[in-house]
Amino acid sequence: MRIKNSHSSKPKPPPAVETSESIAEQVSAFLKSGGEIQKIAKGVSGQAAPSRHIRIGK
Known about the structure:
Elements: H1 16-32
């Protein structure tokens, strides 16, 4: 039986602050280039409804 090390070989990802900053920069660049952000009402989904229900089991 193989035992995994408690330490992973991958380094920890950077803090979320860096990600938030990069998203803010991308949004700013998008808006400056003429892009538009639409506000979508709560509960609205872009996913198409399934054509029928699938029942598994009885």
